[in-house]
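Researcher: Re-running this chain for the archive, since the previous output was lost when a drive failed. Same request as before.
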Amino acid sequence: MRGVGIVLFIAGLLALVIFVHSRTGVDLESLYRGRRWFELRDALLHAGRFPTVYRAAVTFAFHDFSEAERLASNVVRSASEPIDMIRARYILADTYAQEERYAAALAQLRAVNRDQDKSDIALYSAAVQFPRQLVITRRTSRVPWQADPNGHLIFPVTVNGRLAHYELDTGSSYCSISRTEADRLGLKTVDMPGFRGTDGSGLGFEAALASADKVTVGGFEFEHVLFEVRADNKELPPGVLGMHVILAFETITWGRDGVLEIGAPTGPVNIREANLCFDGTHLIARALFQKAGIHVFLDSGASDIDFLPRFGSDFPAVARDKSAVGRSRITGVGGTVEEPVVFLPEIELDVGNASVRTNRAVLRSKDLNGWGYHAHAGSRFLQGATIDLGAMKFGYQ
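Model: Regenerated structure tokens:
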């Protein structure tokens, strides 16, 4: 009888997907597999009925973590073996990791039991050995930033009472520091055998894990902040504050006057108008090019905006000039690589409330770790911009 129940469950789910497809003309499964969360959201808003696992994915993407947990937990409880239960466990693992509930995230990945998750399992297994991050004080702050010799935007922070200059990196899932910086701060590290981080170079990197007792940024004071401890790289700042600290800030503005504003009040929540979403821990902005929607990975740890192979395939006419071929250096935590690129003409994107023009941007020949975004936007793209993680909105001053 158990096998019959599973077959009936899958048949019912398939019928629901077909029903929604017939009502909206949208292939929901294709949107889910392609991680096209904006389009899946739009379909959800126009459909009366919707498979729960898709709703869980959308609520996570648009930063309603409590509702994502509720919906995904319901899927896990109501199904015993279908693919939707596995998907729901991944949504739960992402939700728990964003909230630094690493033991719960670890339990979900172990229940799925797939080799592809061994790096995350290694990270969470180390993370459970440390206390959970706490926000002790929170106050809207204006912090001066400056560009270091390699073009990274750094600002002052205090770690365990010692002054440092780190980078705010929206493209980094976690905070990180170099091995030399960890030694300077006297941090004890825990090894993470099996961990392999991803970065913009595609090379990946190994790391240990450490926790700082106290981190202060402007009027924000944190306790027990986890840092990945990576190999020294002279082209990178000694430290990076990643998404788990950024989530506490809620709002960030990179002022053109050289001031970083953090912790300002968030705007009203309206999922219909949101142009930011999470893809795992990646922050994705929806922009328009030639009136078509594109997905832009916001990575303040990078410098320029690079367009990725999906942009070239969706807009082949833009890269038609094959004489504009060259090579470009891409640096990430794992090192520096060179790859062939196409130099693009001026590209104009509509983002939020503004039009943004890019000069001499490049079209990369390789995707970023198979993520499938249209563009990878760095700090120059973000100057003058505000990220609001409460309203999930991105725009310019």
